[in-house]
Amino acid sequence: MIGMLICKLVRSSTIRVKEGMIWHEGFTLLEVMIALAILSIALIAVLGLQSQAISIVDESSNLTIAAFLAKSKMAELEANEEITAGFSSGDFGEDFPGYRWEVEITSTRYDYLKKIVVTVRRDRPRMPHPYTLILYKLAL
User: What is the CATH number that goes with domain 62-138?
Assistant: First the structure.
């Protein structure tokens, strides 16, 4: 077995080779490349989660504002004593740009009861789902 190298570990943290060569302990280029690949995969995953968290916070903020606006519009309709069936829409002005409201008032099978549906939408595609409130009000 000429040419075959036999390695053994020595306490001095070196690897001695039978033919007299000494290798100091350390990382090979392959080990460093594998470690960097694992680190980069982990960092990409963390950055992806961070981006997703920012999107969720933005969507949550939009839904919170939409809920507030829908409730305020519904309170305005509740305070109004005369309710007539029909459809109306509009926006919230410069205070809340990009938010639009729709109100649909319909009769029910009972003459004294009206169904009021308030929907708030965002003009931007970041809020694809509208926020809707439904109220049944006595119309005496």
Answer: 3.30.1300.30
Task: Write the pLDDT tens digit of every residue in 64-115.
Answer: 999 999 999 999 988 887 888 899 999 998 999 989 999 999 999 988 899 9
Amino acid (1-letter code) at residue 109: R
Which two three-digit tokens encode residue 20? 């007299």
Angle formed at CA 113 by CA 108 and CA 117, multiple of 5 degrees: 70
Distance CA 2, CA 140 (A): 108
- Indicate the helix (H) or strand (E) that contains 122: strand 113-122
Report whether 105 contacts 114 (CB < 8 A): yes
Residue type, 103: V
CA–CA separation, 20 and 40 (whole Å): 39
What is this structure's pTM? 0.66
49-81: string of b/e by CB count within 10 Å (b at 16+)? eeeeeeeeeeeeebeebbeebbeebbeebeeee
Give the total residue count for the chain: 140
